[in-house]
Amino acid sequence: MNRSLRMLVLLFVVSIGVSACQDAASPEADPSETSTPPAHDEASNHDGDQHKEKRGNQDLGVTLVPIIVEEGQVQGPDEVGVPVGTSVRIDVRSDAADEVHVHGYDEFVPVKPGKTTSLEFTANIPGVFEVELEESGLLLFELRVEGP
Fold it and tell me: pTM for the full model?
């Protein structure tokens, strides 16, 4: 991983940690809303950001895929590859109301304009799946799940 990409990943992980602390301190915080993920180069083609989240006493490896949609333009990876059984969290922030849909998994979550919405699931079906904004038909990225 080149130095600039490592710095970008480090800044992103730190911003998520700071956001989580701020959200935890706010009693009216909506758990489905998080801070704005950083913009990625539109031509980027990487495998999402690997990080660990803590839930209770268990450490879980999660592949985080941050997506920003502004005026019909997608900022984020074109394709994300993960092994079968990986937990995937997609964070989508859009300037328009819509619904994130992971084809093949039938996972849906509504998106409110200006809010970041998270969708987490276990990628347990091998293949290539489109992740899109359902109403607009806008392709966010392709999820490649590799394994038996």
Answer: 0.62
The C-alpha atoms of residue 14 and residue 37 are separated, in whole angstroms, by: 11
**Residue range(s) defining the domain that contains residue 65:** 3-146
> Into how many domains does the chain fold?
1
Q: Rounded to an integer, what is the distance from CA 31 to the centroid of its chain?
A: 15
CATH of the domain at 131: 2.60.40.420
> What are 13's two structure tokens?
């992980």
Is 91 within 8 Å of 117 (Cβ atoms)?
yes
CA distance 64 to 67: 10
pLDDT tens digits, 34-88:
444 444 333 333 345 444 443 332 335 799 999 999 999 999 999 999 999 999 9
